[in-house]
Amino acid sequence: MANYNTPGVFVEEINTLGSSVASVPTAIPGFVGFTKQAILPDGNPASDKPVRITSLLEYEAIFGGPKNATFALTLGGTVALPTIATFTPTLPAYKLYYYMQLFFANGGGACYVVSVGNDSVSMTSGLLTGGIAKLEQVDEVTLLVAPEATELSSGRLDVNNAMLEQCSRLKDRFAILDALDGAGNVATDATNFRAEVGANDLKYGAAYYPALNTSLNYTYTNAGVTITTDGRSDGAGAYTGKTLDNVLTGSGSTTINKTIANLITSEILKYTLRLYPSSAMAGVYARVDASRGVWKAPANVGINFVIAPSTLVTDSEQAGLNIDAASGKSINVIRQFSGKGTIVWGARTLAGNDNEWRYINVRRLFNFVEESIQKATEFVVFEPNTAGTWQRVKGMCEAFLTNLWRDGALAGATPKDAFFVSVGLGTTMTADDILNGKMIVEIGIAAVRPAEFIVLRFSHKLQES
Q: Domain limits at 290?
């Protein structure tokens, strides 16, 4: 307040607008995996620390490109009509770069990456769980993804549990897990996955199945494509021990042969990546959040850069994945439908038997509301614990929730049906609570739930005239 000791005109500004609740981001993934390098633009190392990026170009600048595949082949046929007799690829297990491609292609934007080692170290669950722990440092992260856990020969249980435990403890993030396929039977794949997830914190994660046959190709160098034997009947040995680079350039005492080069290149292009869906789903979450809102289930949407799921799941097979009475660990299926393409066909958390937290969008909506209100009300700490403060907080929360209701995030014909906010002595607090410095606000919201089962009932109508 001004000091009115000197004659004059004094201006005072009166704050007539109350505080508001700002919406926090909802789809900022934290990726953990192995990279070619980890060097920040300033030259400092970026290993074992979360680095924020917004594009694949930034990823390449800091973490490098993918680990190249190599190919070995033998030639057959004749000089005039060469053929490829054998073709042996060596495909890298380190695929984080390709997973990032899938993330950005499906709507992903800002994210964090933790490099836990270069693409020559042995993959272990300990390295991945250590990287997951590093993501605790970043409050902005709302999704956890460790796609290379699918490459582990053991220890996936530790990785999955580490993600779920962190999400449960911090209550501001959600884990996206991959269910492995390849056992030769969908039910067996489901049983194997459910053994790789503990019994706790299931409402904070979702699993997806199966792997996806993508349209992405492995990167390679011409020098990494070697001709072990040139077995052409009338030109034996001409290219034995040479590389595709020699064939294209004529180096190494060889002659340029575009026919052989084209044969080899076309064979390489047949090797497309088979990737698990967690990174693509992180992109789908971001896309749906941006276009519809976090309250919309991330399902019945297509996945880009995908030719088809690696396993085609039937309705009866999906029934055993979607609902499991024993463990409750629901697995969301990605399926291919005629005329639609590859579609996400599930919206359940791992807590499939939990009526409160069965659906992904409900859990993520509560994460969003809880963190938004928590951050917005931090200014109240150390304010007088009186009715005036209570009403300010109540007004903030009600205005925020009313806007969510108008956007379609909450069920109910009126705001009164959609939510309630209670705070006050005798309602949410006792005199002892106030003496102990506690201001307790109770908030209830009616989250919208997806229409998972659409039932159309038909009957014969008898002729009446």
A: 29-216+273-362
